[in-house]
């Protein structure tokens, strides 16, 4: 969780003093190894086009990420582009089973830590990839079966997620569990422990880090008509119906002649989102990097409110696992390709909804959440095109804890008269009194959704 700044006055445009405080808060959060992506955004105006992929995606509340390879973090050409352009990173290989648990029960996080630390130092969030996968298994794991393998899976999830608890935005809990073609389950050692291995993995993951979003991630599930897509869709629907904890589906999106981009991708994203999960494009690369196809993929994400963001699978073409396909946004010289410009322009063309749902009137429907011996009441404050203020009044106690949960993709970018921490992974603010009484407030960047947060109060 990251500390939010405390301000004496409600915000208009942030004053220089407030901006300084925001920067200080950002530095404080950085020193704690926490992501600070939202805090500097208080300085941005809603209508200014982003000049980097991350900034352009943030205009609509999304992220733009890249796979990062720890061995390249010493290359300034690499880190200059990665640091400038992206606000989410995925370790390309460093969190895989063979990297993190090369011998049973002996965890190694050296390389993955380098990436997570680099991300924190540079204000970026991290997608964890991947906890359970049929591939990239160390020898000891490959030799296990039955209950011993099942227990090893549970122990692995707990070991890795425990190490990174609170630092990961989303985990690919299970990767590539379905077979190509038929859409049945892939025949793997994990699958042979029983059909329920996937849901067990998700339940263990939820308990291990309740603040991380939990994703199922796969390739060749972008085309809505494919059997594999339908199988994953059925699994996610079943999980949602039975309460198996799943928050997101990752569409790897390695597009090439064998798995060409198809305009039905948007339908796929919409259908999955309608199940009540976020959708994420997690490993995007496109053979030959055609600008129009990149723009189409980005447009598909922008068309789906629950498409949280896009990650490309590498920085420059030579960094790609398919380098001969030149599938990425930067060439070997680090120069921006035509696809880069197409992606940036498409992101910048996304404008937050011009007619968002109206806020409820504070007089007709105050939001009150009594719990214990206090209640928190919200009231409308100033409004701007990109953000709005809410006042909060606590009654019933002078020593309270208020929890405020924002609907995605709204973000709290400032507070006043209160001591608060902001958990970006869950979109939750936790507030306590700071000696300024029981009336305080927040500034919310709405990203097109002006639905008020829910609040609850408990006496401390
Ligand atoms: O890009 C990754 C490559 O460097 C590795 O050698 C390979 C095997 O671990 O994995 C590649 O990344 C894969 C990702 O983890 C899962 N989806 C498919 C990706 C491309 O193969």
Automatic annotation (TrEMBL):
Q: Where is region (Disordered) located?
A: 350-372
What's the EC number here? 3.2.1.8
Please list the residue ranges that the record marks as compositionally biased, kind Pro residues: 353-363
Q: Which InterPro entries match?
A: CBD2, CBM2/CBM3_carb-bd_dom_sf, CBM2_carb-bd_dom_sf, GH, GH10, GH10_AS, GH10_dom
Looking at the record, the residues that make up the GH10 domain are: 47-346
Any keyword Hydrolase?
yes
Q: Which PROSITE patterns match?
A: CBM2, GH10_1, GH10_2
A biological process term (GO) from this entry: xylan catabolic process
- Superkingdom of the source species: Bacteria
Which reaction is the catalytic activity of this chain? Answer: Endohydrolysis of (1->4)-beta-D-xylosidic linkages in xylans
Q: Ranges for the CBM2 domain? A: 367-460
Q: Which GO terms describe its molecular function?
A: endo-1,4-beta-xylanase activity; polysaccharide binding
Spell out the Gene3D superfamilies in the cross-references: 2.60.40.290, Glycosidases
Query: Which family does the record claim for this protein?
Result: Belongs to the glycosyl hydrolase 10 (cellulase F) family.
- Tell me the protein's name: Beta-xylanase
User: What lineage is on file?
Assistant: Bacteria, Bacillati, Actinomycetota, Actinomycetes, Streptosporangiales
What is the primary gene name for this protein?
xynA
